[in-house]
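Appendix B. Chain record.
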Amino acid sequence: MVYRLVVRAAAVAVLFPIAATAQTPAGTITLPPVIVTAQKEPADLQRLPLSATGVLKDTIQGAGIRIASEAALLAPNVHFTEFSARKLSNIRMRGIGSSPGNPGVTTFIDGVPQLNDNTSRFDFLDVERIEFVRGPQSALFGRNTLGGLVNVVTERPSLQQWSGSFVAPFGNYGSSDLRGTAAGPLGDKVAVGFSLGHSERDGFTTNAVTGNHLDSRSGTVFKAQARFAPRADWEGRVIVSGARARDGDYALNDLGALRNTPFQAARDFEGRTDGDVLSTTVLLRREGRRLTLSSTTGVVSWKTEDLTDLDYTPLPLLTRQNLEEAIQFTQEVRLASAANAPVRLSDAAVLRWQAGVFF
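Structure tokens predicted for this chain:
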């Protein structure tokens, strides 16, 4: 078990020119603004000095996107290497990627960094948007964002009305995906949300020795959250989520043999790849007239175990068991200028700033 604590402070100042008023030419179509938190504070994506792609809720639902690699198909210069078990789903942005335990591209889920890929490769539930931010982001997000970051934001439960959904798509290779959500108010100041999903599929690779599929997948995810809004300028959210993966063995075999007989391996031992994650996130935010105060607390407990035939032959020679587990605690406190109260430097420029401490 490995523990790692990092203390970091950051302050950022960005100049935003004030756009001159101009008439919209006849026949021009103006798209609605896309509000993202790619620089921690909500802002219009078109006005941010960075390269980013936001995949919104309507697209996620309409395209049936369940995992980050499916959303990445809509983001330029973002590539996932999908190999067998989901724990080997590795991301690269502009060619930069690294080991699961020291990522060069980090996934943030509701502001909590997933500092090991084993905690971020599960199906998504109740996602409002997925942001792919390309290029170094270390000034605000730390050393593990050299290539960029993936920012996943959970949808807030409504304080006005209840809503819910249920989907059950099916496909070939025994693929199925069942998930349901329900969210709504418990009075004027409290709202709750619940979601549950289960997906599975058969493997694509057959073991010639036993006739079984090697690289099957099965996973269950859940999420529950409570939203508190005691006043118009205060909001608190508690999000508890978990995931359980029971995947098959790694589909590895001799390269020459795979060229002759694709999707087929031969081994005497069939292993498995298991993963369990439980996380709790507490978000607090106060939006004042001049200042905005935010706090993000995250606790992520995870465990993975993979058991495989290490010689990848029909001979009983070598096997490997790899067990990893850890508990990650992170705390961030930030102070920023209010969205509607930047510091005016001149008639042509304003200053928006933020400073914070991350532990």
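Further analysis of this model is presented in Appendix C.
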